[in-house]
Amino acid sequence: MTSENDEKKLKQCLQLIIHAISDTINNLKKQSRQSNQKQILSNLQEKINGLLDDNLSSLSSQCRNYLFDELNEYNYNAEEKIFSTSFTEDKLYHFLHDLQGRLSLSEACQAAWNGDQNMIEKFIKNYPKLKDKSGLYGTTLLYSAARKNHFNLVRYLIEMGKCSVNTQNKDYIDRGSLSTLKATIGSTALHAACFHGHLQIVEYLIQHGADYFILNNAFETPIENGQNKPNIRQFFTNFLLFSYSRNSNILPKRTILEEIEKSPEAIIDCFWEYKPFSHDRWFPFTPDSSSRLQQALIIDSDKKFISEIHLKASREAFSVSIVQFLRSGKNHDHIENLAWVRCRGSSLLNFHCYSQWQIMFIRHPTGITNSSSSIEVFDMIKTNIQLNSWYNSNDKINFLFERAMNYRRKYITINLDFINNEKITFNLENFTFTNQENTIEGFLRWIPKLILNDEKLTLVNNFQLPPNSDLILLTTSYLKQQLIKGKASNKFFNVIQGNLLTQQTDVIVICTSSKSLLESVLEAGGASLRKSFQIKYKENPREPVISITIDDRLQARAVYFVAWQPNADSSILSQSIEDLVSNVMEKAASENYKSIAFPAIGCGRYGCSISHVAQILVRQVQRQITKYPLMVSFVIHPDRTDICDEFQKQIKLLQGEDKISTTKRMSIKVGQGKIEVKKGDITKQEVDVILGSSSSENLRQVLLEAGGKQVEDAYSEEFRVNPNSLIISTPPGQLPCKRIFFLKWEPNKDPEILRQSIIDLIWNLIQNVNSYNFTSIAFPAIGCGEHACSVDIVVKTMVTEMKQQIQNRKLPWIVTFIIHPNEQNVYDEFCKQLLASNHEPIDYKLPSTWQTSNEDKMQFILSKNTNEYKSIVMDFDETMKNNYQEIIKIERIQNERWYMQYLAHARDFQKRLNEDTEKFLYHGCPEAAAYSIMHDCFNRSFAGVNGTAYGVGVYFSSSGAYSHRFTKPNSNGERCMFLARVLVGKTTIGNKSMKTRPVGFDSTTDGNHIFVTYHDAQAYAEYLITYK
Description:
By secondary structure, the chain is of the alpha+beta class. The chain has 31 helices and 39 strands. Helix 8 (189-195) runs antiparallel to helix 9 (199-207).
């Protein structure tokens, strides 16, 4: 945590840079020659670089990262310690202003905490760009105000300050220094208000669009944060739809779309009802009829859609149109035999199908009652209201209903413009609606969206079907299948080389950070577009999407201006692009647009990886299309065929058409096993175990999303219980494996530390794979992507270590390294190392004292007459004086797998240190732990069990009396203590902050009798002494 002194040093550093820039600006004003200006600007960069060199080392990592967050926007490369682009005079003024804003942000955050609205108003007026920025301590202005229950300040920040209601806190602490997940990171203002029970602020934030399912870094939603506060718990109980057909009091954890992505099976939670034309109330179907109706909409992709089913009720028989949700008797023409049908529940949750919402007025001051009911369906246009008839929702209102259902809201209020903008409240639990005066009442329902079975995704009108039409339900799964097959690529994906401004599309997207593109569209759109943009931008420059409709100067109907900045951190870059796409597509759907044209965001002068940007854009569009079926074009400059080719390649990869590149592989035999390298998708590997890493957020999210709800819940629970665990093992969920291992690993730029960390990772992996008796592993190219590690060191160490382990341990394993199809250099490096000559295998011999047995056993009781037994007793008696009564038995542990592992490690120590550092030390533990140690040796799950004073590792002592403290008697009063072989190697005095071995050392010590190890193979439990 940053101290007050650290913050003071940061401010001093900022002030030095500000003064340097101010002096340069004043100097430039005096210059007339262009050449002098360039030199002055160059001198300034050198001066700032010098100031940073002098001051960065004295700053905490938190302060450095906070400073880098601003400098990165001006292309500062923290690794090379230089600005990658030259300053311009115009840029200098912005740079100065932004640095002054950063200097003021600390005081503003404190003011928000204290509720000082005057100071906040001044800050936002001067620095509107920073209103959503997290301060040095990782919280936004809105979060702080909500946290401290300053309601008026929250309202000002939302309504006048135009702060984003869903902005998440960002911390500047290095990821590696966090031993546990910090809940404030990733939290929003709603998280804070819920956690502290500030109901008025909770209600206000949700009214203004706060997302109550958004997760913070501890995987908590605002709903979960409020469960300890009765008022918040009661609010969500009244606000949310728990269930339709079940008596449930379990608060939902995610939206419906997120639910069905994680659980492919349809969830039955609905009521089927019918309303005869002559009645104003709905009646329930019988359970048998409801089941038949339910099954009619749950259709496998290879089965034909049945548009009509036949039901029996008492003595009558009925037909139900699944297309129109209309029930009819024997005589279809008689009104008294007709009844409307509805399913009260979510179409997406129950059937994964998209829906067309309809409303029916049964009371309206000017409504017209027909003498006879009709099945005619009306559009929402201004005309006389027909009572007892259905009105199709327009695209905008349909979107609002779908979004409310997705977010599980019980009520939604909408102004209906076709009835004089009347404010109507819809009850999504009962499927009814009314206005405030109760002069307008009615019913609500949805009918399934249908398409022609022509692979063109052509929507049909359920009440005006083409003759002899072959229909299909428009479901999320069908849409995904069409995208994967490539059948829908012409419908949804399109790559064009041309001018973005001349595209015939509903929406064109413009990044405001691209000054040339921004100026081009403003010039082409004329004075009205420029003026509209300037007004809206001034109102809220941080608005995610500024939407402006345009006249016929451009082919498009609207321009979406989006604020976006590149970032050298690939994970931040990916997230920013994903947010941009989702914001744009949600906005377009809500405004009834059908098509969007994106530029190749970030592929120009920003220096972002074209391959990476194209991949993220294409995949995120594909995800969003399942929510908002829109036509998306990627418009590429005519001169950039390389960018065009990359986008087309990514679309083909998504559709599975690039068969050659994704299945390319190479393999070799190693001892009794095999190692292979292939390009492909890690989530598609049919193996015993798929490996993930805590260091790769992208990889972790890919595995969690692909695995589904079972994996996500298991991971979250395991992380909550044991956040420091070196491995989190989860069931496979929807992945074609038996287990998923998420291994704890952190990259490092130091070659030796990097090499050793990979060796440790592989040893840890082998231990856990063996414990499950697995024989096949899918291993991603950890460290070769987003971490900028040395690929040759990472790959060589991975392959060499895995070769040695398979060879020496005689493992009959198949290990597959899975490389992303676009990473040819990584694939080539793996192939090179795979074909490198193997080290000559070493013949390790078992101890001569070991006994052979036909049984699968590893515990052998020593005879009291042997020298082996007597020497152990002699040492034990000497170190345990007055601490025990008798030795019950001494067992030799013959675990060949762990002994071979220990010997291999001992050989490495001898070679590296040129001396024998093995010691025989004691380790006391409860009986249950003893059994685990015998089978799995001293793995890191025992770290810290016997103390942490000299490091968080496994503790051993030359003093049996000391180790005796950590034993526990069983029901017979017997205790357990191991006599273990321990490789202490090069050791140093430890302390409780050491979670791994210090660089350059193998163990830590108290300087006397205690030794702490940090590697599973560094000790071997050779004898178990049972005593009283």
